[in-house]
């Protein structure tokens, strides 16, 4: 028996997205298993978030083929989406939990914010490039991340209105740690930030505030795009 055309169309609309989703889910699972969990990331919440967030939705269409390869990709305006392993590592370092309020400096396309939002209670993220900030805000809203608030502005100054933060994640390399971010870090909080010169090898730092004192630990050499904000902007 031949099915009516409208039923066939309904079947196509229903099943094609699932096929696409299944195809990308397998790629995400391979990425997490081989390049993230396989390289030592152990936090279950982080691994679950990396499996859930669809990286191909956060890159330009011509980069979607490479979305589940473990390296940065260009997203326009001279910026990049971070390597998935680095996103997972920086997320694990701050020891995320469902009660956390997190500040991210350097929204980019919103991928790191989405991973954080899968775990934390609230994410505040700042992007200095208006086009990227607006695009990320729309994307995150469309994907249902109601616990993410995006601001277009200079991340050097943080977001005092919502401080203090349980954790701060900075996704661009600064020459030194911005004092406002230290001020806005909660007692017992953790900040992860790359420090070093532009377009050279930098050092990823873990900064903790313990009993009013700042404790710094070097984690690994990294290469991030430069922090474009400053105290004059």
Automatic annotation (TrEMBL):
Gene3D superfamilies noted in UniProt: Vaccinia Virus protein VP39
The protein's enzyme class: transferase
Alphabetical keyword list: Cytoplasm, Methyltransferase, S-adenosyl-L-methionine, Transferase
GO biological process, one term: methylation
Entries under Pfam families matching the protein: PCMT
InterPro entries (UniProt xref): PCMT (IPR000682), SAM-dependent_MTases_sf (IPR029063)
Keyword Glycoprotein: no
Domain of life: Bacteria
Active site, renumbered: 82
GO molecular function, one term: protein-L-isoaspartate (D-aspartate) O-methyltransferase activity
Family indicated by similarity: Belongs to the methyltransferase superfamily. L-isoaspartyl/D-aspartyl protein methyltransferase family.
UniProt-listed PANTHER family: PROTEIN-L-ISOASPARTATE O-METHYLTRANSFERASE, PROTEIN-L-ISOASPARTATE(D-ASPARTATE) O-METHYLTRANSFERASE
Role, per record: Catalyzes the methyl esterification of L-isoaspartyl residues in peptides and proteins that result from spontaneous decomposition of normal L-aspartyl and L-asparaginyl residues. It plays a role in the repair and/or degradation of damaged proteins.
Protein name: Protein-L-isoaspartate O-methyltransferase
Organism listed in the record: Pontibacter anaerobius
